[in-house]
Structure formats: structure tokens, C-alpha cells
Q: What sequence folds into this?
């Protein structure tokens, strides 16, 4: 969180981090923390720390978890005691918007970056695959190959009883003096429907990173010519080429050696906008199954992301949004980007390998909805808007 940033957006993002680490952060506590942040003027890092710690922590056991999360999210804290909010100073005219004097009162600072949005271009640690991971990969590949999503093409072949082949029947009639001696039929051919995966590998999704990459590898291994896999975080990266390796360990090693935006912040709006600009008008997206796996936390304005999701829903066959916590009891989409995108997507839970295998089977259902008899278990995954 920065002084010139949006405190509501930054507070919601940090609260999501605390929930992942095990702290119970309710909406009422977020409201109290927001009022506490408004009491500090100017709002520095120490004030942010104590305002959040005093409002979001309710037990002594929460303090080490909160301190670790705050240090990873905002950086270390200098003060060791609570900072008393200073009285609000009257607004001084003539200062540029977004500029504020430094601690020594000299020059204004304008080079701040919003927490949770900075890139971290560095290769991650190696990912050795265990025997359990190989078994999980085999189960994913079997799920993709057992249920194949198909789409009708414009090509035709002889056969069937539904469509009359007018040209061939007419040629036969011309050879028999205009008598309809035989009526020929044709059928529409089908092809495998394309699959596009947008996997969120930001810091808030770090616990599911390995599982999502194995899921993406299995999707490419099942259909290498009709599957595209991208990672979204603070930027868009295409990892389809690395996942086309025959050896899964070689594919993971190639990803680990690539300088990508691993374990960084989240700018889903810019990443999905780049995807729509580069691939939205391409045949990759048109009539394809588009799957977005993310927790939906966006640290910028969610309007560009919602606009792109709306546009992609009109281009693709359908858009499925996988959320790690969507299947939990009492789940409510607090993230503004996810909440505003619900009219254009089908929300499904993706917490573990079992849910991802069900997702692979869901992709093969042509018009699956929560009331589909083939997937009755999807009823509990529907979320009220």
C-alpha cells in the first residue's frame, strides 16, 4: 500500500494474503481497518502496519503470521511501538497531485509503486516431480483424452441420413433421365474444440502453482495442436512451447529456467488486455473453451478486466473461471474483478486435482450449466451474484 494508492483496493489485496496464511479477516474488520487508516495523515508504512495489526489481529498467535505477511507484502517496519495518528494538516494549495514531501521535508517523492503490482522477473527454484506428481499427470491426461470436446466444422463427408447432398443427388438424376433413383446424404464433420488456459501464478496463487502447471502440461500433452497455455500476473507469458516437451520433468525444468513473472503481484487487467489484443482476434480464441484460473484479486481498476472478459465471452465458445475457494461453504466473491465478471463466466472450484479432473470432463459437455444432468455436482458450485 502506498500513500497515493487506493487504500480500499490495497487493503482488500492484503486481506486476501492474510486469508491464505490462515487468518480470519472478516468484512467488519476490513471496514474498521479502513477507518483506522484514514486517521493517519500522512500515511506511511509504520502507520499502515499498526493500523492493520490493531484491527486485523485478534489473537496472540496471529501476530507472527501477520508480521511475516506484512514484511513480505510491504517490507520491514522501522518503528517498534504504535504510531499515534497526527492531527490532519490543512490542505496546502499549489502542490502537484500525488506528490508529498519526504521525511526530511525536502523534495517530493513521485516514484512509488503500488504494493502487489511490481514485477519480479526471476527464475523460480527447480521443480522436481515426485512419483505422486507423475501419477497425477497421468490422471489429468486420461481425463482430457476420455472426454473430448468437439465442434462442428464446415466440412462435409458422405454418410448420415439427416442432410441431403443436393449436388450429388442431382448428378445422379441427370444420369438417369431426371429420375430420382437414389438420394445421397452427407454429414457434418467434427473437430476437437480448442482450449485456452490462463493460469494466475501471482503471489496469492503460489500454493496452487505446481498443480496448475501440471494441469496445463496434461492439457497440452492430450492435444498439443489445439491447446494454448498462458500465465497471467503482472504480465502475459505464453508457455505452450515449454509444455510441449515429451518429458514432463524437462518441461518443468524449461519453465524454471525461463525468466518470467513468478510469485509477484497481480495486474490481471493489463495481462488479460494484452491477451485480448494479441490473441482475441486470432482463431485461437474464436469458438474455443477459455479457462481462467485465478483468485480474482486485482490491485488496479477492475473495469478493464471486466471489459475484456465480456469481450472474450462473445468470441469464445464459453469462459470458465476456476477459483480455488469457490466450493467452500459460504463462499462469496469479494474480489471486485471476479464479482463483476460473474455474468460472463461460469464459476467452478479448482482447489485440488479432483476438481481439475472434473473441470476437464466439464469442458467436453457442449452446453453444461449448473443444472446439467451430466454434472449434477456443479449445482453446489453456483454462486449468487
A:
Amino acid at each position: 500500500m502506498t500513500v497515493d494508492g487506493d487504500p480500499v483496493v490495497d487493503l482488500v489485496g492484503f486481506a486476501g494474503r492474510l486469508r491464505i496464511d490462515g487468518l480470519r479477516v472478516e468484512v467488519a474488520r476490513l471496514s474498521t481497518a479502513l477507518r483506522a487508516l484514514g486517521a493517519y495523515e500522512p500515511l506511511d508504512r509504520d502507520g499502515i502496519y499498526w493500523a492493520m495489526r490493531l484491527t486485523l489481529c485478534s489473537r496472540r498467535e496471529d501476530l507472527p503470521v501477520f508480521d511475516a505477511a506484512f514484511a513480505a507484502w510491504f517490507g520491514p517496519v522501522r518503528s517498534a511501538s504504535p504510531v499515534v495518528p497526527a492531527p490532519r494538516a490543512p490542505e496546502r494549495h499549489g502542490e502537484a497531485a500525488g506528490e508529498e514531501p519526504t521525511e526530511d521535508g525536502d523534495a517530493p517523492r513521485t516514484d512509488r509503486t503500488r504494493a502487489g503490482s511490481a514485477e519480479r522477473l526471476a527464475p523460480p527454484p527447480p521443480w522436481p516431480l515426485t512419483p505422486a506428481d507423475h501419477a497425477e499427470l497421468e490422471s489429468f491426461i486420461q481425463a482430457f483424452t476420455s472426454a473430448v470436446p468437439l465442434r462442428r466444422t464446415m466440412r462435409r463427408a458422405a454418410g448420415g441420413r439427416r442432410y441431403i447432398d443436393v449436388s450429388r443427388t442431382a448428378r445422379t438424376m441427370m444420369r438417369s433421365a431426371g429420375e430420382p433413383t437414389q438420394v445421397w446424404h452427407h454429414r457434418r464433420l467434427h473437430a476437437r474444440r480448442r482450449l485456452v488456459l490462463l493460469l494466475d501464478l501471482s503471489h496469492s496463487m503460489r500454493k496452487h502453482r505446481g498443480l496448475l502447471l501440471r494441469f496445463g502440461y496434461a492439457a497440452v500433452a492430450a492435444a498439443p495442436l489445439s491447446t494454448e497455455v498462458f500465465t497471467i500476473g503482472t504480465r502475459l507469458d505464453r508457455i505452450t512451447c515449454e509444455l510441449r516437451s515429451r518429458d514432463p520433468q524437462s518441461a518443468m525444468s524449461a519453465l524454471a529456467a525461463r525468466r518470467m513473472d513468478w510469485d509477484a503481484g497481480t495486474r490481471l487487467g493489463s495481462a488479460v488486455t494484452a491477451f485480448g489484443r494479441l490473441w482475441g482476434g486470432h482463431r485461437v480464441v474464436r469458438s474455443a473453451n477459455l479457462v481462467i484460473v485465478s483468485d480474482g484479486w486485482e490491485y488496479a481498476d477492475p473495469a478493464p478486466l471486466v471489459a475484456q472478459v465480456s469481450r472474450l465471452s462473445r468470441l469464445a465458445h464459453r469462459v470458465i473461471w476456476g477459483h480455488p475457494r469457490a466450493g467452500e461453504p459460504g463462499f462469496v466473491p469479494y474480489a471486485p474483478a471476479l464479482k463483476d465478471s460473474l455474468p460472463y463466466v461460469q464459476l467452478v472450484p479448482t482447489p485440488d486435482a479432483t476438481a481439475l479432473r472434473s473441470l476437464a470432463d466439464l469442458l467436453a459437455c457442449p452446453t453444461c450449466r449448473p443444472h446439467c444432468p451430466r454434472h449434477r455436482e456443479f449445482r453446489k458450485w453456483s454462486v449468487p451474484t
Notes: The radius of gyration is 26 Å. The longest helix spans residues 131-146.
